[in-house]
Amino acid sequence: MMPSVASCLLAAAAAAWSLASTTTASSDNDTDTLVTQQIDNHPYPYDFPQLGANGTDIFPMRLCNGFKLEEASIDEIQVELKSGKLTGVQLLECYFERIYQLQPYLNAVLQYNPDAMEIAKVLDEERQRGIVRGPLHGIPFLVKDNIASKDKMETTAGSWALVGSVVPRDAHVVYRLRQAGAVLLGKAALSEWADMRSNDYSEGYSGRGGQCRNPYNFTVNPGGSSSGSGVAVTSNQVPFALGTETDGSVINPAERSAVVGIKPTVGLTSRAGVIPESTHQDSVGCFGKTVRDATYVLDAIYGIDPRDNYTFAQEGKPPRGGYTQFITKKSVLKGAVFGLPWLSFWQYNDPTQNAQLVELLDLIRSAGATIINGTELLSYKDIVDPQGWNWDYGTQRGYPNESEYTYVKVDFYNNINSYLAELNNTNMRSLEDLVQYNIDNVGSEGGLPGVNPAFASGQDGFLASLATKGIMNETYWQALSYCQRTSREDGIDAALHSNGHNLTALLVPPDFGPTYQIAAQAGYPVITLPAGTNKESKMPYGLALMGTAFSEATLIKYASAIEDLQVSSNTPWKRTLPTWSGYLDRNIPLINA
Ligand SMILES: *[C@@H]1O[C@H](CO)[C@@H](O)[C@H](O)[C@H]1NC(C)=O
Ligand SMILES: *[C@@H]1O[C@H](CO)[C@@H](O)[C@H](O)[C@H]1NC(C)=O
Ligand SMILES: *[C@@H]1O[C@H](CO)[C@@H](O)[C@H](O)[C@H]1NC(C)=O
Ligand SMILES: *[C@@H]1O[C@H](CO)[C@@H](O)[C@H](O)[C@H]1NC(C)=O
Ligand SMILES: *[C@@H]1O[C@H](CO)[C@@H](O)[C@H](O)[C@H]1NC(C)=O
Ligand SMILES: *[C@@H]1O[C@H](CO)[C@@H](O)[C@H](O)[C@H]1NC(C)=O
Ligand SMILES: *[C@@H]1O[C@H](CO)[C@@H](O)[C@H](O)[C@H]1NC(C)=O
Ligand SMILES: *[C@@H]1O[C@H](CO)[C@@H](O)[C@H](O)[C@H]1NC(C)=O
Ligand SMILES: *[C@@H]1O[C@H](CO)[C@@H](O)[C@H](O)[C@H]1NC(C)=O
């Protein structure tokens, strides 16, 4: 056996080197131990997936210094760290080892932080001196590659166009996680430019990162655009990750990866240092295996940041002491009153999935909650496309002045130029430059339709934005105010108060995209919980809680209560481990199923 691969930071190099050795080494009776210890004569089951294996056995996770790290919660990891049975450095090595095992298959990591070991070491030393910064001390994490880190790593939104660019500073959220003692392990794969660039594309693909795949089914859309964040957490490559959302990019990959996703109210988490899409809707969100894990992350990153004036809106809103105190048990479901906007969303969701979700709703009811059917958004007929997610539905109805895409296109043109203006060491200064780059590098960046199978429509999203020249005209303002009104007071708030009720939250099926889409337009929070898997595709789906602006404390409270109910009741409608279905499949584009 070769020594622990994890002790080597240069993963790719190490892997290539040991494979090369394997092909020339021929016998068990070599006596040069330098050579023999590099030979892997026991490839199964940890280093190679064995043909014919199935289920979780395909990619088992090694014990970490005797500790079962797979599926361990952040609290459970902290117990090990506190007892001294595991150091932060060892923990990081175990996660690197897991990443090396899975990277050729899932491709969820875009880049490793070469300083991660050093950071973990410093945090171990702090702990030895009695300093523990909080629940994330020594815990490794990934951030989506559109979140700036002022270190040795690139920040590129998955595009070759930004390779080499030097960011001015850490994104606020990254800075805050460093302060909380978390260990930035690397950058997570994503759909390039967070899906702003194209309207017909392979989800989870980027020119720089290639195709990220979902461990429940390798041939279908893994969820995006924070694909790597969801995939890495569900496959135990990191305990938590950050993603970003403009319209679904946290909730969608979280629910398709059977993890908890928190998309906060726009303005609760600073977007400063995040490659933008729309200032009106962008939000940084959290991925964890449990509500508690994800909430630890939210507590570390929320707050006012002078560099993002949307964060001033939270003044006085977050509960004193943060959100973790709201994590609770199923008993609080007694007295909760949830609403089901059935006609608005549920009626359009997959019926087989609905039948399973209704069993989960029955369970929630049996725990003492009241669930009121028919709590609708007043405007659902105009704003919800029965076919599914569609951010240009207004235009398709004949009203560009009532379409989300109308203002997102304009915002992107302006917001990306502001982001680029702060970069050093790049020739990319405008959306025009990015469009030209994608044409000049068409083979890898698919700047023209039909060249790169992952970007079937080329860069039509960029071109649509370019055509607006960022002009905020009458149509823009009408569309913005229409989408905000119909999703807020005539939308989610109306549903929360339908028939004079004061609902605790709305329960919705996030696999039907318009759920998180309407919350995105409103800038309102969503939490998704794993809720089961689809029999045919093997793909997970979630149950989501929606509420009004800055209602995170309520959503976290009831999401954790439902999660407790799921775990304690033995229901099948909860988080399950990856099944690795089709793990040798590599076709692009992925199918939307
Ligand atoms: C093992 O060593 C013996 C003695 O040196 C040699 O004859 C034999 O060919 C070796 N076997 C292999 C498979 O290399
Ligand atoms: C997985 O393999 C085991 C042992 O070979 C077998 O008993 C089981 O039925 C298989 N499960 C599936 C889902 O194929
Ligand atoms: C860019 O580089 C210049 C010269 O080194 C420096 O003064 C400036 O602060 C840098 N700007 C950013 C945004 O890092
Ligand atoms: C934030 O600042 C920009 C530019 O100064 C301004 O146009 C915008 O209205 C401000 N937004 C908020 C929410 O304060
Ligand atoms: C909710 O009401 C609709 C009719 O509006 C009905 O079709 C659906 O089955 C109901 N759902 C539940 C969970 O009761
Ligand atoms: C506003 O600009 C868009 C292009 O971005 C254009 O389609 C629309 O007609 C313009 N509206 C007005 C009122 O000029
Ligand atoms: C959009 O334009 C149509 C006319 O084409 C108008 O009837 C409608 O009221 C406008 N919508 C908004 C939100 O202003
Ligand atoms: C809902 O809340 C409002 C304002 O707090 C209150 O006036 C009303 O009585 C409440 N309705 C119900 C059904 O509890
Ligand atoms: C992946 O999902 C597709 C679409 O539902 C399905 O046809 C296919 O059988 C699934 N793949 C595997 C290996 O289960």
From TrEMBL:
The lineage of its organism: Eukaryota, Fungi, Dikarya, Ascomycota, Pezizomycotina. PANTHER family: AMIDASE, AMIDASE C869.01-RELATED. This is Amidase family protein. It comes from Talaromyces proteolyticus. It comes from the Eukaryota. Residues 1-27 form the signal peptide. Coiled coil: none annotated. Residues 91-373 form the Amidase domain. Pfam families: Amidase (PF01425). Keywords: Signal.
